[in-house]
C-alpha cells in the first residue's frame, strides 16, 4: 500500500477534530479511497470521514485496514507545512509516513490491533433538512454555549431556530431566505459539548447540512470537493419527575 496527498492540510485538520472524539480508529484504504467510521466511548456521538481516491495524486492499494492511534498520527501530521506532500506506505506492522518539502522527513507509526467489528453509520429517516451558512451555524452554537450546556433545534412556521435555555437564554432564528429548509415542524435537544467539537468540522466549508427530527439523532454533513465528514449525535431526552 502506498498513497500520496499533494495537500495534506485537510487530512491533518480532520484527524485533529476526530481525535477529540475517539483515540483509536480503523482506517480503511481500498479502491474507493480512504475512510473511517468510529463511535465515541460514551456511545453518544459517531463520526464518518472519507477522502475519495480522486483526491490522491498516487494511489496503489488493495483492501487495507489500519489500526491507528489518532493522537500519534495527529502529532505527525501537524509537522506538515504549506507546500508539503504526504506519502503513506504500509510496511509489515508499521505505517511509514513521509513528509516531502525541501527535505524528506520520515516517520514510522506502529499499527495497533483494535478489537470489535467495524462500525457503519446507520441510515435514519429525518423530518427536517436544513442547509445553512457554516459561519452562521457556528455563531449560533457559540451563543448557546454562553447560557447553557444544551440547545434545541426547532422547525416551526417562521423557519429554523437554535435555542438554549437555562437561567438565561439565547436564540438564533433563520428564515427560509437565510437557510434552505425542507422540513416538518419538529424540535430536538442536543449536547453543546459535542456540538462545539463538531463546529470545528463546519469551519472546513461554507455550507453545513443538518438532518434531525423530534427527539431524534442529529446528523451533520460537511462536504468539500475532496472530503466528506459526517457526525451523528444522540438527542438529549429529558424526563419529567
Structurally, the number of domains stands at 2
Distance between the termini: 57 Å
Number of discrete helical segments: 4
CATH homolog superfamily of the largest domain: DNA Polymerase III, subunit A, domain 2
CATH domain class name of the largest domain = Alpha Beta
Report the average pLDDT across residues: 95
Strand content: over 45%
- Give helix and strand order, one letter per element, not per position: EHEEEEEHEEEEHEEEEEHEEE
CATH architecture of the largest domain: Roll
Q: In order across it, which strands form the biggest sheet?
A: 6-2-3-4-18-17-16-10-14
- Let me know the largest β-sheet: 9 strands, antiparallel
Relative helix content? 10-25%
What is the number of strand segments? Answer: 18
Topology:
Layout: E1 2-5, H1 9-18, E2 24-30, E3 33-39, E4 45-52, E5 58-60, E6 64-69, H2 70-77, E7 85-91, E8 94-100, E9 104-110, E10 128-133, H3 134-145, E11 150-156, E12 159-165, E13 169-174, E14 179-183, E15 186-191, H4 192-202, E16 207-212, E17 218-224, E18 227-233
Antiparallel strand pairs: 1-5, 1-7, 2-3, 2-6, 3-4, 4-18, 7-8, 8-9, 10-14, 10-16, 11-12, 11-15, 12-13, 16-17, 17-18
Helix pairs in contact: 1-2, 3-4
